[in-house]
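Narrative summary of target 7.
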Amino acid sequence: MPETDEQAAPWEYTLTIPHDPRSVTVCRRTLRLILTMHGLIGLVDTAELLATELVGNAVRHTEGPAALRVSWAPSVLRIGAWDANPEPPQPPRELTAITDLEEGRGLALVKACANQWGWQPLSRNGHRGKCVWCELGGAA
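Modeled conformation, tokenized:
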């Protein structure tokens, strides 16, 4: 499928969120709207899953503000969750070893579903923190 004009030009969105579990739903729905408006509907389901895990971890395991960052460079969707805790995330467990667990699967799902993932220290608005990110290759 050829890229449309919406899929060819790079773009970036940042949504700053409060430390509130409802923020995860706001981020997921905002991401769906962004991807739909840019003609990337084929990435929505996986992107929503990944954003839910990343933002959910930022809200659940840290204190203070957080942010969802979504960017598109032709053929690569990057989803990141910034939080005010500069400590690195725990390494993901193997997905096959945690299928019965209610919690602790987030980064294992990200690792399994994304083309790449990682984290980096990142300061934002005077707060030291980190951004945990993942990338999806872009067949829309």
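The two ends are 8 Å apart (CA to CA).
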